[in-house]
Design brief:
CATH superfamily: Alpha/Beta hydrolase fold, catalytic domain
Low-confidence stretches: 1-13
Helix content: 25-40%
Mean pLDDT: 93
Order of helices and strands: HEEEHEHEHEHHHHHEHEH
Shape: globular
Number of domains: 1
CATH class: Alpha Beta
Structural class: alpha/beta
Distance between the termini: 29 Å
Largest sheet: 8 strands, mixed
Strand content: 15-25%
Strand order of the largest sheet: 1-2-4-3-5-6-7-8
Radius of gyration: 18 Å
Length: 278
């Protein structure tokens, strides 16, 4: 655990972020801390990514708040363990990380795989979460378009030779404790992607103020996006001139934006900061 005094000077004024490993649920979970002040925010990457994937958003938000970026199980600098890739398990990892760092309450932000992780963390550990930002993931598996699901069904080590030629693998190999483990990660990720889930009831019961962010050409259908927003209490009535009809849920849809580029959009940090500062 790091004391409040220790957190205060981390990663400010262009200095490298302070990093460490948290022993949680059998993992040595890698994290790095950018900035200081405000309510701490934990930030999680998409599938096969790492803290490098979210670095630009962390840097943009760090001047006003403390940002803790993590590498999920088997990703980046976090060594894999003998455990399935599972969003509920990842959600518990985030809950344990919050305890390990001695934080009372945090904001959670995640993209794709990281968004599912943070959604599960908020469902499973609501008292530890002040606000939640979910970027480009549905609340049920069939929220993905059929062609996206078809692609997910094909993820396995059989595609490793193709993945070996990609920047994604190069980024993994540069920091992973065991670069040769990538085919195994592909098999575990594929099994997770093929697992059916429907969190409708749990999302409907969620009281954590939540913002959903999607691209207008995302991998999730607009009908499922609207359903997700409605489950959180959004879009149920006119907000009214005095905002008396407003819920705690927010929805942002970025124009001319796909699932694969949304986290690089320059307007994203401002959307996140605006919601967290409401």
């Amino acid at each position: 655990m790091i004391s409040e005094m220790g957190w205060a000077a981390m990663g400010e004024n262009g200095t490298p972020p302070v990093s460490g490993y948290a022993p949680v649920n059998g993992l040595d979970l890698y994290y790095e801390v950018h900035g200081s002040g405000g309510v701490p925010m934990i930030l999680a990457h998409g599938g096969f990514g790492s803290t490098a994937m979210v670095a630009s958003v962390a840097a943009a938000l760090a001047p006003a708040r403390q940002v803790i970026a993590v590498d999920l199980q088997g990703h980046g600098r976090t060594r894999d363990i003998d455990r399935a890739v599972s969003l509920p398990a990842f959600g518990d990892d985030i809950g344990a990380l919050i305890d390990h760092l001695g934080l009372a309450q945090v904001d959670l932000v995640g993209y794709s795989l990281g968004a599912g992780t943070m959604l599960r963390a908020a469902i499973q550990h609501p008292a530890k979460v002040r606000k939640l930002v979910v970027i480009s993931t549905p609340h049920r598996r069939d929220g993905w378009y059929p062609e996206v699901l078809a692609g997910m069904n094909q993820v396995s080590s059989a595609g490793f030779e193709m993945m070996r030629q990609t920047p994604m693998y190069a980024e993994y190999a540069a920091v992973a404790p065991d670069p040769d483990h990538f085919p195994i990660l592909m098999d575990k990720m594929g099994a997770s992607m093929r697992t059916s889930y429907d969190w409708t009831e749990e999302v409907a019961a969620l009281t954590v103020p939540t913002m959903l962010v999607f691209g207008d050409a995302d991998g999730i259908s607009p009908a499922r996006i609207a359903e997700f927003f409605g489950l959180l209490g959004g879009g149920q009535r006119d907000g009214s001139w005095d905002r008396s009809g407003m819920s705690t849920a927010r929805l942002a849809v970025l124009p001319n934006t796909t699932h694969y580029e949304i986290f690089d959009k320059p307007e994203l940090p401002g959307l996140i900061e605006g919601f967290l500062d409401e």
